[in-house]
Write a structure and sequence with these properties.
75% helix; mainly alpha; globular
Length: 140
């Protein structure tokens, strides 16, 4: 991993993971246990009073930590993807560091290329919009 863009990507991902873990720990620590505490960090919702497509993701991850998959899905299905990422990605990055490989970078470039396909991008946009509509109708 001597290429500068690869190192920068790995550093950015590592910092994002650390921020995510710190936020999760803070959220779990300050939560009353019901899993419904408003975290109040969504700038979009603060400005518009409308939940964004990712609103409920923290509550979703917290539900998964508690073993409640149904509520995790209810709060926001993206939370399940976020949780899997937070669990698997550190191991992947550590593997690349120890093995001196860049398998995550190769995956990232391939995923980026895959998402540039107009049909895949359209499907992803439709899923995000559907999730956003669902967030609005649930009154998050």
């Amino acid at each position: 991993m001597t290429n500068r863009p690869i190192r920068q990507l790995y550093l950015m991902i590592t910092l994002a993971l650390l921020a995510g873990y710190l936020w999760l720990i803070y959220s779990l620590y300050t939560d009353s246990g019901a899993g419904t505490v408003e975290t109040g960090v969504c700038l979009f919702k603060e400005l518009t009073t409308v939940p964004c497509p990712s609103c409920g993701s923290t509550r979703s991850v917290k539900s998964l930590v508690r073993g409640d998959v149904w509520n995790a899905f209810y709060w926001n299905p993206f939370g399940i993807i976020i949780s899997l990422t937070m669990i698997l990605l550190p191991f992947w990055l550590i593997f690349d560091l120890i093995a001196k490989k860049n398998t995550f970078y190769i995956f990232y470039i391939g995923l980026e290329k895959f998402l540039k396909n107009k049909w895949i991008a359209a499907a992803a946009i439709i899923l995000v919009l559907a999730n956003w509509i669902w967030n609005i109708t649930k009154g998050l």
